[in-house]
Amino acid sequence: MIDMRNIYRQYIFSILFSLVIVAAHAQTALPLMPYPKEVQLSEGKLYLTEETSLSINGKYSDRLSKEGTQFLRQLVEQTGLFINQSKVVGAIDQATIQVQSLAVGQVEIGEDESYTIQIDQSGVKLNASNDIGASRGLMTLLQLVQADSKGYYWPHVAIDDEPRFRWRGMMIDPSRHFLPVTDLKRNIDAMAAVKLNVLHLHLSDDQGFRFESKVFPKLNSLGTDGNYYSQEELKDIVDYASQKGILIVPEIDVPGHATAILTAYPELGSKDTTYVLERFAGIFDPTLDPTNEEVYVFLDKLFAEIVTIFPGPYFNIGGDENLGKHWNESEHIQKFMKKNGIKSNHELQGYFNLRLQKILAQYEKRMMGWEEIMIDDLEKSALIHSWKGAWEKATPKQSLYKAAAEGYQTILSNGYYLDLMLTTESSYLVDPAPKADNLSDFQRSNILGGEICMWSELVIPQTLESRLWPRAAAIAERFWSPEEIKDVEDMYDRMDHISLWLENFDLKHISEPNRIIRKLAAGHDTEPLHLLLDMVEPMKGYTRNPGGTMYNTFSPYTKWVDAATADAPGARAFNNQVDCYLNSKIGCQDLKPVLESLAENHDQIMKIIADSPSLQEIQSLSANASRVASLALETLDYLETNSKPKSKWFVDAKDILNEASEQGGRTELQVISGVSDLVTALEGEVK
Ligand code: ACM
């Protein structure tokens, strides 16, 4: 039997080695993410010792006091050092790390989040104009800790940092699958770790209404399966996020995506019928009736209740994907439209939005909504959330630039839909307002930033993090760092590093996929499964869930595909090495060890499958992976011996590659492109 463990280690080593080569060409000097605006690295290291200490000076703030304590906790856990002196109070010049903050910051868009760090032989100085900026700087300091054979150290460096965009958000959807408070809190910690500053909670949709309403209790008793946030829990979340300098924006999605509301209060619907909670994914017909005054009375009372929990200035009313089928079918709605000169469903939704904008104005809230809320008379205080093109065939950023030109503040999510399971690279290279685009200063000033979107049709608490992280860190960099920081290999290099660092915040993005694999291995050695898993990615876009009907609320979500991540690390390394080999670059790794282990992997996997029926779905995937690996080995032999296979060999090779492109266990093999390149190169040689 081959020694899988050794081969696997050898392979991991080769990945790390390739990262070192990449790092040699790095655009950045330090493994930080988001990368600061200005970094001046000098010779010299400040070693951490048991005497290392922290002082916090300037304007006292509860936030910074707590953040300082957590910083020290992280620092000792990261380094394993028994630091004696913990926190120093009021003895500025005696502490190793001197933090100076001049004010208590407000958790609002546009607040100053800048900071500077100076590290030299005399110690660390972190200066900020307020405690939020200082907290951002503390995260940079934790990321900056390095190690060598003598110990842990900070490099001598001067950093001057501030965000490029004011709105650096993440939308989490606890409606499709409920996500408990503890899960939200872990992700808030991780958001702060990479300097994100807005958490948008999608609190209602067809599958569940997650805000505890004391005024309309049926929203919870009938509009959920029993899972929703109590008002106390939501207040706690708001406080928790505020401590981290993160604003919470609540969303109640209306008039469409309203099945949960209408399951509880069917009399508010556009169709005279009863409704039941939706279990599948998609765009559904249940829609509030904009001609019914009771709808506005209901929303006014509901919003009045919600605004007592969320002190921030923004309230998101959703407004997306209302196809208006029930409006078209309703006689009284059609009559209302005729009587009031309303010519289209879009105009009717505009009428509805304006009514909501007035309701929210009473509570001094700014209306926010998905781009569909944009209509002619909408007041400019509304904030437009641009998203189309995320998976529809709309022009990316069309609504972003249009809203900005018309004087609306706006944010971008097209490109940042992490539920699509696209690679990090594809999101990282989307810029909300690149210099190359012909935008006026006015437009640029209205583009506040962007938001990562994590829809949870296919996500449960155990898998939330592996879908969000570490890709969210790379997008956070796009929102925070200078536009010029965009070298993809350099990003992947730093992201791999930050991904491990994020585990310090108890994130489960690495541990949960490993747990799924352990479960599926049914007591066997997990390495054959990991070898294959590293070569596959979940089906992209919404193809994993055709028509939204393959999976529903109660489907299993800890299967093979749920352990796979959006950037198959083994495949990325392999494809890079193929490129290296074919282009005769220097320092290429031998492709054969991993191919040999993959070629033999199927036999190992079959032994596991025999005890793990849930894995039967990957049988052909695994067989294909081994076949493709054998094909690649044959191709390399031909290339290296300058010999020529018969033309039939190429026909067979293409058949193997085509067959291996089929999904297996809802995942797709990612080494096909590298192996195809090898075969194509061989074809070129023999012509
Ligand atoms: C959306 O993705 N429906 C905003």
Describe this structure in words.
By secondary structure, the protein is α/β, with parallel strands linked by helices. The chain folds into 3 domains: 4-11 and 511-686, no CATH class; 38-161, 2-Layer Sandwich (Chitobiase, domain 2); 167-438 and 446-505, TIM Barrel, CATH 3.20.20.80. The protein has 25 helices and 20 strands. Strands 1, 2, 3, 4, 5, 6, 7 and 8 form an 8-stranded mixed beta sheet that branches. Helix 19 (527-533) crosses helix 22. Residues 1-25 have low confidence and may be disordered. Acetamide (ACM) binds next to loops.
Flag low-confidence runs: 1-25
Total strand count, please? 20
By CATH, the topology of the largest domain is TIM Barrel
Strand content: 5-15%
State the domain count: 3
Query: According to CATH, what is the class of the largest domain?
Result: Alpha Beta
Provide the fold topology.
Layout: H1 4-24, E1 38-47, E2 54-58, H2 62-79, E3 87-88, E4 97-101, E5 115-120, E6 123-128, H3 131-144, E7 146-148, E8 151-161, E9 167-172, H4 181-193, E10 198-202, E11 204-205, E12 208-209, H5 218-221, H6 231-243, E13 247-254, H7 259-264, H8 293-307, E14 314-318, H9 325-329, H10 331-339, H11 345-362, E15 366-370, E16 383-386, H12 398-406, E17 409-412, H13 424-428, H14 441-446, E18 447-454, H15 461-468, H16 471-480, H17 488-502, H18 511-521, H19 527-533, E19 536-538, H20 560-563, H21 569-582, H22 592-611, H23 619-641, H24 647-660, E20 667-669, H25 672-686
Parallel strand pairs: 2-3, 2-4, 4-6, 9-10, 9-18, 10-13, 13-14, 14-15, 15-16, 16-17, 17-18
Antiparallel strand pairs: 1-8, 5-6, 5-8, 7-8, 11-12, 19-20
Bound molecules: acetamide.
